[in-house]
Design brief:
The model has no long low-confidence stretch (mean pLDDT about 90). The chain is of the alpha+beta class and about 150 residues long. It is about 45% helix and about 15% strand. The protein is globular and about 55 Å long. A three-stranded antiparallel β-sheet has the order 1-2-3.
Amino acid sequence: MKITGIETLVCHARMRNWVFVKVLTDQPGLFGWGEATLEWHTRAVVGAVQDIAELIVGEDPGRIEYLWQMMHRQHFWHGNGIVRATAAAGIDIALWDIAGKIAGMPCSRLWGGPVRDTVRTYCHLGGGRMEDFYETSVEEAERFADLARQA
């Protein structure tokens, strides 16, 4: 099996953009998704994903540790800072997604099984200007609270 391409999908949000990474393989319908969001550095992360893709397209996606080492070591002398680390993390997550799909199990099982049965959630409304929050209507605040309870 080989990696045939790496794509990014940017979802624009109010105060930040989410960057998703899709690793494609030569197996029909088999791909993995990762997340590589770094607030206020969207274009830099997308560019770093494209740079790293040049290194690993054609490689076996099952060699996750080898590919991580390659991503880290090949860029060490080129400024392996937070932007490149975020890009590599998104690719790494996508590789684990592929491994989980092949094994027919969630990644948590690949990593040794779940640690707990429940996960606490919270709702974050994002950054921005405080004045914008003062203008939020009571109805809108109640809607946000309801969404948080449903998380």
